[in-house]
Design brief:
Length: 306
Amino acid sequence: MTEMITGAQYALAAGPYRAVVTESGASLRELTLRQDGGDERPLVLTHGADEPAPAAFGNLLIPWPNRVDGGRYEYGGKSYRLDLSEPENDCAIHGLVRWAHWTPAEHLPHRVRLTHRLLGSGGYPFRLDLEAEYVLDAEAGLTVRMTAHNRGPVTAPYGHGAHPYLTVGEPLDRCTVTLDAARYLPVDDRMIPSGPAEDVAGTRWDLRDGPVLGDREIDNAYTGLGRDAAGRCWTTLSGGGRSVRLWSDEAHPWTEIYTADQAPEPRAGLGVEPMTCPPNAFASGEGLIDLAPGATFSGSWGIMAG
């Protein structure tokens, strides 16, 4: 009997929403909305069950999001070196669990909860128990909760993020993007921060008024995020009479926006990545979470049709 290379496929359904989460990486492979005519409208870019997630489609980024320059960092008075998972930029990228086996702890028609035991390695000699819970609701769409518990004997550096690509079925050049963010993080040609976050006012990175993207290329982290009364920051992609929205809670002070210029199908969807810390946080220490022995950290984000 053959099996999918991304492992078990956990299907979820609630009202018009459908989702598929994979055993590999606890990744979001599909999220769709059933329309009045019965057709399924994709809300995120998807890939085949027998295809590793391209360009980090739907991946969870743990225990760091984005890049670590040279894979090198110091923590607790010691120096560490991570494997260079992005050798072309001399970087370690997107954590350690993107291709790992995650174990189902619970699977209901509208909900799945997966766990992973992250054991210590040479570049990250810390011990975490991880949990990812995906819940569909007929009105609220998808909610994802990511949790880390330090089971080891020493404090661990920690950060997380997620990497869905929103889509409205239109090329990004014809879409508008709205994100209430006051500052963006400039980066160098290796995508490492080149200075502190800067004011978006008067720049092509200003997305507060929902500009048409046109030909602008973005692969930057935003902060100074505006939030609603529930503490949620919202990013909205609109085009062709459709909208899709991603929210993140206050555990995520950063949102990476990526116009997918290097994806297999360039600019077909928008990477909107809620993050607990900015790129290179393991090296800079900015926004890094010091997860003490026995401590737990959680954060939530979600996606719904506009």
